[in-house]
Structure formats: structure tokens, C-alpha cells
Write a structure and sequence with these properties.
heterotrimer, A alpha/beta (about 280), B alpha/beta (about 400), C alpha/beta (about 200), B: about 400 residues, four-stranded parallel sheet, 8 strands, about 10% strand, globular, C: about 200 residues, alpha/beta, Rossmann fold, about 15% strand
């Protein structure tokens, strides 16, 4: 029997992720690339890389779901679903008992209320950089550190500083003040992690915090933020092995579901051929 | 050359694009134009005096550059926009500016408008904010004072018969708006949310007779439409602060949804209750303008004097009409929206959400800032909501 | 406290315990969480001689003979109190205008404007509270009218009653220092125009 495959594309503001799974939900490919200014048009290039990884041609893909900030710029997708629904599905795949998903990406932060693997409510913060990956990028730059170093450094802190500014720009000023007052790098970074965690915690508390709580997104790779979130929420937080996977995986799972449902009803999941070119204009 | 006069929805679209064209023509013919902010100024009194009531609104697409000098950025962007375009001369054709006590910032705006835009005649109606009997009595006194002031402005007096006739004409308009909204109960609705907003905005830009004639055309056009709106999955009710531009509704309706009903003030709020005809017309007007209009600027509670309140019973008494709207218009979800810094609507949201949750109606709250840029992230939220209620 | 204040008045001792450089008015609710900020202004010779948020008007009497009901007595004392304050401060013609303004617009700045003149203020600090729109939304217009009418400049210092992170005493002091140049400038302007202060 010929295997059929399904694809989820998560075109985020910072990173583009593509997942290909087969009908048993086994992972055939997972590609992550920087979105950049160009890639908003070039989702087809990332798709090609994923196909190469899985040794497949586009014809083998039965259904494609696009999600994320740039989901409109995937002309070859069969359906567009919000990253809210997709993340919820993706997270529940690895953590079936999840009740609260927290995703902190490059430019937004989301809280997802999940029940029986489905999204039932959400909160989003995407109007400002505070509480997102951007916040950490800015402060890492101010401190002359690499993003990957922030987590391990913060764990050495013994007396974290307090960052009171809500705004990323003003937080930078506070960091400089602390540095000139002689605070240690570890304590400053720990303070910053506490600030971002506090902000996100305040947002997700609107959804009622219940275990299991799962944390995804690029920022979830930062062990310092994970610990700070646990402190601010007062509960254990799970982080998947690959925190960037859940959006694209969720999209692929929905693609699979949609296609198999159509097949069971004797219908074709989609009609027509795919336009594998670039997206023609920004929206 | 005879220029064909547009009718029905084509006329509505024309008015949407250039709202003040008609009143400027009327002004050239010698009519006086009475601008009014919000739906609390009594338009019947203006009509009775043969003035043309003209709703003062903002312009979402005009960047706010002049009103920062008078209103700080942390207040309602809609009011800032109204002041901004007033300062830019776009309301220079008004002969009168009538404001009412919508909210504290609205009151500040009243004084600022008088000092800066300098509309020749200015009046502020101090409507109370509760619905006690004493508030109603106060409202009657306030409206009588308003009538006297307007009579001085217009240079003539209103008899009870004149006022009653004006009330009848405005009630006729209300009845027709309700008839139009009836056509939205169908699936798919015969008129989209975006078109509805344009119709309401049009009739709030015309004298009542012309508005009524236009409504008659629109209603018959809509009922016999050949190019009906296509079927969609979701039917939504939109509640909240003023939406005077179709941008947000269009964003919602670009997804798999229709806005089939609303509880907003360029929408159903001014039209869903008739003014009762009373011996002294002011009595009926006071009842309508204080008690019947369901805007959060008026504080309602089930029993003012109760020492202990039953939360859910209180919420039911205040918001069950929303559940009725949802039921009657076969909606499957509610979008609560308010402009940033609108405390009046913002404070109602948690309680409305509690109520809707209790009666099993899904809802989502969107806060926006009266600009087009704010709509893009909102689309994700609305789509996420639609995916949840699917 | 009365005796202490009377002593100071009788002996010409400024409230700030040093020579007065600038006579100031304060608009808005006080920054209760950071009152020491006002001390740092006092160090620069800023003497706040009037403010409008908490000061009652001059005392007045109401004839309550024959009124025994305590609620009615209270209401009669409070009702029309704004009326009486206006009658005290303005000549009858202007008083009528002010009342008309309040009836038509809900408020009038003329009382506050009058105080700036009466107390001969060199500048006004407008404490704009981010979350108190009721108090803050009218302040810009007041600043405008003040400059227009009496050539007295205003300084906006942003803050909040609840959220202390919105008030920045360091930045505010910097602004205050710069504002002194503005006040000096307008002192000259007023002199040239013949104002009495």
C-alpha cells in the first residue's frame, strides 16, 4: 500500500517550521528556518527542503495546512488554520493531559486553554515586545550575551534584581542602571527572566491555571524562563523535547484528520493542482 | 444634464463615501444643521424645530495629529478622532453642536470643542446615569431645558403637537430599521453586517424624512435581492462601543462568518425601542432616552436598594436581552469589542462574559484602538474563536 | 497647626523654609506614593501656593433655621455649594457666565484660572494621571487657556495613583529644571505686558 503524507507549515514571524507526517502520525520530516523578510514569499523553498528530508515529491502530500502569522502567504496550502488551534493540537499530541499551553514566540505570547486535546479558549499578546522572545533578544544584546547563554547564566543567580518597567525599551534602561550599580550579570538576567515570566503569567492566569501546563516556542529552550514561569505560576511546567514543533505538528495532524475524513466520506480532500510558486504579494 | 439620483443601497454607499454632501446641500438651501455626539441628544426636538440632525462621528483612516494638544493620548481614540477632524475644519458646516454626558472624557470634549472648534451654538445635555424615579424626573427637567435652549437657537417654539409629529416620524424610522434587521434572521442573512452599518450611518446623516424614504428603498431592495449573500458557517452578534467604520465588520465577514445582529450605537441601540406617545411628549422622550436605550453609560441593576444581591439574577436582569438577540437571530457566538480606554464598555465585559457563559453562549472579547492597523492581529483571534465554536 | 501657620504668615516665613523662587500651582491628584518628590522641588525654591483637587472654597454660611431633618440639613449645606463659591469669587455678571458655562459644558476652568492670578503663580504643574481620565482629560485645555489668558506656562508630569512605575521622579525633576527657564521667560513676558506679577 502506498503511504500518504500530510504537511503542516507554521510560518511564524521569526521562524518557519514544516512538518511532514504519514497516516500513522509518524514524523517523516521536520525543518526549521529563519523566516526573514524574504521567506514570507518563499514558503515553497522551505517546503522543498522538507520534501528532500523525507525523500518525497509534492505529489505524495495529500493535504497541507498552513498556520502562523504568515499563513496567508502559502499559496499551495489547502487550508489555513490559526496557530491557536494548531498549537493546542500539537501540544496535546505529546501531552494528552494538557490543560494549559503557553507559547512564547519571537513576537507574540499565547495562552491556550485545552480540554480533551481541543482548544476551548485563549489569550494572546501581540501588540508589544514585552513578554515575547524579542524582549530577550533586546536585553541579550544590551548585555553582550548570546540568547542561548541566558538560561545557564541565570541559574547561577543568588539575588535576582527587580525589573519594574513594563516596556522593553525602559527595561533596557533599568538593566544599564543595575549594571552601573554593580549588580552581577546572573542576577540581572534572572531578574529579566522573572519580568518576562511575570508578564506572561499575568496574561495566562485569565484562563485559570490547571495542570498539566506545557510551555512551547523558542523561548521554552531557555531554562531560566522555564524556572521563572514555574515560580510565577506556582506549578510544574513541561517542555517538549522540540519546543518549536507543536504549531506545524498540530497543523499536520489537522491536515491528516481532514484528509482521512474526506476519504471516509468518499470525497476528494481537495480539488485542483497546487501552485508551488512564490506568494505574489504581502497582505 | 440630468444626473440620475441613486437609490437604495447604491445611495447608501454614496453617503458612506461622502457623508456630509447632502447636509451641505441642505445648508445651502437655508436649513440649519445640528450636529450631535452619541445617541442621547434628542433628535426629535431637533426635527420638530426643522433643524437637520447630523451625527458627529470620527474618521478611522485619518491619523490623529491635532487633537493631541487638547486630549491626552490615553483617552478614547474615537473622541480624539472626532475632535481631530473638527479641528481640521471638517465640521465647519455645523450650526450647532449638541453633546451629552456620555462619559467623563466626553464631557471634557464638550468644553474643548466649544473653545477650539467654535461651532456657533453649543449645548450639553446633562443626562443622569441611573434609572431611579428621581433620575427620570431629573431627565425630564434636563430635556425641557434643552428644548427651551433649542427653541431660542431656532427662533421658534415647539407645540406638543409638533413634537408628537416629530416623534412619530422618528418612530417610523425605528420600525423600519427593525424591519431591516428582521431580514438578517434568515440564513444567509439578506443583508450583511457591513451593509447594515452603512445603512445606519446613512440615516444618521440625513433629515428624518429623507432617511425614511431611503430605508423604504433599501428594505424593498433587500427583500427582492437577486445577488444574495452566500451561505457561511458562523452567525455572530457584535456588542460594544461605537463602530462607525465597516473595517472591523468587513474583517470578520471576510472569514466564514456573518455579523447578523449587533448591540452598538451605529447599529440597533437607537432604534430598537419606540418612544411612547405621552400626553406631555417629554415624558415619553425621557423614558426612552434614559431608560430604554441600553448603553452601558447608564447603570442598571436589578434592585438598587437590595442589601444582598444575587449575582446571576442581577446579570440576567441586565443582559438577558442579549441572549434574546442571540436566540432570535440564530447566532452561534458573540463578539464583545471595545475601544481601548473606554472604561464604560470595558467594565461591562467581565460581567457580560459571566452571563453568556452561564447561558452557554460562546463569546470573545476584542480590544482595538480605532485604527486599521489594529485589525490584522484581531483577525487571528476572530478566526481562532470561529475554530473553537465550529 | 493654625497657630503655627499664623506665626509663619505673620513673620513672612515661606512654607518651604527657604526663599521662594517660583510660586506654583498644582493640578491633579497629589502623588501620594512619592510626596518626597515635592520636597525635591521645594529644594529648588518651588513653593506650591495653591492646588484645586483638595482645597475647599472659602467658608460660607447657610440659613438652616427651621430645618430639623439631618438629611435635609446636610443637603441644603452641600447643594449649591459650587454656586456659592462662584458667587464669592466673581462679579455678578461674570458669575452668571461661569454658571452658564458649567451648565452647558459640565465644567468651567475659570475658577482655576482665577486662582492662578490671585495667588500670582509663575507656573502650573499638571499631574496627568494615566488611569484617571476624569481628572486628566481636561488639563491640556486648561494649560492652553492659562497661557492665553495670563501668560503662565504649565509643566506636564505624568504619573498614576495606583501604578507607581508610571511615575518617574528622576525624569520629572529633569523636566522641572528645564521648566524653570520657561517660567523665567514668561515672567519677563508678563512684565512687558503689564501684568501685576
Amino acid at each position: 500500500m502506498i503511504s500518504i503524507y500530510f504537511t503542516g507549515i507554521d510560518l511564524g514571524s521569526t521562524m518557519t517550521k514544516v512538518v511532514i507526517i504519514d497516516e500513522t502520525e509518524k514524523l517523516a520530516a521536520f525543518v526549521v528556518q529563519h523566516t526573514g523578510a524574504e521567506h514570507r514569499r518563499l514558503a515553497n523553498k522551505v517546503m522543498e527542503d522538507a520534501l528532500k528530508q523525507a525523500s518525497l515529491s509534492i505529489g505524495a502530500i495529500s493535504y497541507i495546512v498552513a498556520t502562523g502569522y504568515g499563513r496567508i502567504n502559502v499559496p499551495f496550502a489547502d487550508k489555513q488554520i490559526t496557530e491557536l488551534t494548531c498549537h493546542a493540537r500539537g501540544i496535546a499530541h505529546f501531552f494528552p493531559n494538557v490543560r494549559l499551553g503557553i507559547d512564547i514566540g519571537g513576537q507574540d505570547a499565547k495562552g491556550l486553554k485545552i480540554k480533551d486535546g481541543k482548544l476551548i479558549d485563549f489569550v494572546m499578546s501581540d501588540k508589544c515586545a514585552a513578554g515575547t522572545g524579542r524582549y530577550l533578544e533586546v536585553v541579550a544584546q544590551t548585555l553582550g550575551l548570546n540568547l542561548e547563554d541566558l538560561g545557564p547564566i541565570s541559574l547561577k543567580s543568588t539575588n535576582k534584581v527587580s525589573i519594574s518597567s513594563i516596556c522593553t525599551i525602559f527595561a533596557q534602561q533599568e538593566v544599564i542602571n543595575h549594571l552601573s550599580a554593580g549588580a552581577s550579570l546572573e542576577d540581572i538576567v534572572a531578574g529579566l527572566h522573572d519580568a518576562i515570566a511575570g508578564r506572561v503569567a499575568r496574561m495566562v492566569k485569565r484562563l485559570k491555571v490547571e495542570p498539566d501546563v506545557v510551555f512551547t516556542g523558542g523561548v521554552a529552550k531557555n531554562i531560566g524562563v522555564v524556572k521563572a514561569l514555574e515560580e510565577n505560576l506556582g506549578c510544574k511546567i513541561f517542555v517538549p523535547e522540540e519546543p518549536l514543533l507543536s504549531g506545524a505538528l498540530g497543523a499536520a495532524l489537522i491536515a491528516r484528520e481532514t484528509a482521512l475524513k474526506a476519504k471516509a466520506e468518499g470525497k476528494l480532500p481537495r480539488s485542483g493542482s497546487r501552485n508551488m510558486g512564490e506568494a505574489t504579494f504581502y497582505r | 444634464m440630468v444626473v440620475a439620483v441613486k437609490k437604495g443601497l447604491a445611495r447608501v454607499q454614496e453617503l458612506y463615501q461622502d457623508r456630509s454632501k447632502r447636509v451641505k446641500e441642505l445648508k445651502a438651501e437655508g436649513k440649519k444643521i445640528a450636529g450631535y455626539l452619541c445617541i442621547y441628544p434628542v433628535t426629535e426636538i431637533m426635527t420638530a424645530l426643522d433643524l437637520v440632525p447630523y451625527r458627529v462621528l470620527g474618521d478611522m483612516r485619518e491619523p490623529i495629529t491635532k487633537s493631541d494638544a487638547y486630549l491626552p493620548p490615553v483617552v478614547c481614540p474615537f473622541l480624539r478622532s472626532c475632535l481631530d477632524i473638527g479641528l481640521k475644519g471638517r465640521y465647519d458646516f455645523l450650526d450647532a453642536m449638541i453633546t451629552s454626558h456620555i462619559c467623563d472624557v466626553g464631557s471634557s470634549l464638550s468644553g474643548i470643542w466649544r473653545y477650539t472648534v467654535k461651532t456657533p451654538f453649543h449645548y450639553n445635555i446633562d443626562t443622569p446615569h441611573t434609572i431611579h424615579d428621581t433620575s427620570l424626573a431629573q431627565t425630564k427637567a434636563v430635556l425641557k431645558a434643552f428644548q427651551t435652549a433649542m427653541e431660542t437657537f431656532a427662533g421658534k417654539k415647539i407645540t406638543p403637537v409638533m413634537l408628537e409629529n416629530a416623534i412619530k416620524k422618528h418612530n417610523e424610522q425605528r420600525a423600519m430599521v427593525r424591519e431591516l434587521y428582521e431580514s438578517k434572521k434568515q440564513d444567509p442573512p439578506l443583508i450583511t453586517g457591513s451593509e447594515t452599518l452603512k445603512v445606519i450611518k446613512a440615516i444618521q446623516s440625513l433629515p428624518v424624512n429623507e432617511g425614511n424614504a431611503l430605508l423604504r428603498e433599501v428594505i424593498s431592495e433587500v427583500k427582492t435581492r437577486v445577488n444574495k449573500p452566500l451561505k457561511k458557517n458562523a452567525r455572530l452578534l457584535v456588542w460594544g462601543s461605537i463602530l462607525d467604520d465597516t473595517a472591523m465588520i468587513e474583517m470578520i465577514e471576510s472569514l466564514d462568518a456573518y455579523v447578523v445582529m449587533d448591540d452598538t450605537c451605529v447599529g440597533s441601540r437607537a432604534f430598537f425601542d419606540d418612544v411612547k406617545l405621552t400626553k406631555d411628549p417629554i415624558d415619553g422622550l425621557a423614558q426612552h432616552y434614559l431608560v430604554d436605550i441600553k448603553c452601558p453609560r447608564t447603570f442598571r441593576t436589578r434592585d438598587f436598594y437590595a442589601v444582598k444581591k444575587n449575582y446571576m439574577e442581577d446579570l440576567k436582569s441586565r443582559f438577558s436581552y442579549l441572549a434574546d438577540y442571540v436566540h432570535d437571530w440564530h447566532a452561534n457566538g458573540v463578539i464583545l469589542q471595545s475601544v481601548r480606554y473606554c472604561d464604560t464598555h470595558g467594565y461591562e465585559v467581565p460581567q457580560i462574559r459571566d452571563y453568556l457563559k452561564e447561558v452557554g453562549i460562546p463569546s470573545i472579547y476584542l480590544e482595538h484602538d480605532y485604527t486599521e492597523g489594529a485589525l490584522s492581529p484581531m483577525k487571528t483571534r476572530v478566526q481562532g474563536f470561529l475554530e473553537i465554536i465550529e | 497647626m493654625y497657630n503655627e501657620v499664623k506665626y509663619r504668615v505673620d513673620h513672612g516665613i515661606a512654607a518651604i523654609n527657604r526663599p521662594e523662587k517660583y510660586r506654583m500651582s498644582f493640578e491633579g491628584l497629589a502623588p501620594w506614593h512619592s510626596l518626597s518628590f515635592l520636597d525635591s522641588l521645594a529644594d529648588r525654591g518651588w513653593n506650591f501656593v495653591c492646588e484645586s483637587a483638595y482645597s475647599p472654597g472659602r467658608p460660607f454660611t447657610v440659613d438652616l433655621t427651621g430645618v430639623s431633618d439631618p438629611v435635609e440639613r446636610y443637603v441644603r449645606k452641600r447643594y449649591r455649594s459650587l454656586d456659592k463659591v462662584i458667587d464669592q469669587e466673581f462679579e455678578p455678571k461674570e458669575a452668571a457666565e461661569v454658571k452658564e458655562e458649567i451648565m452647558r459644558e459640565g465644567s468651567s476652568n475659570r475658577l482655576r484660572l482665577r486662582h492662578v492670578r490671585e495667588y500670582q503663580c509663575d507656573g502650573v504643574v499638571l499631574h496627568v494621571l494615566l488611569s484617571c481620565r476624569s481628572a486628566s482629560s481636561g488639563l491640556s485645555l486648561f494649560a492652553d487657556q492659562l497661557l492665553d489668558m495670563y501668560k503662565v506656562p504649565s509643566l506636564i508630569i505624568e504619573g498614576d495613583i495606583i501604578d507607581t512605575s508610571l511615575f518617574n521622579p528622576v525624569e520629572s525633576l529633569k523636566k522641572a529644571e528645564a521648566f524653570e527657564d520657561t517660567m523665567d521667560h514668561y515672567k519677563k513676558v508678563r512684565k512687558e505686558l503689564g501684568f501685576e506679577w
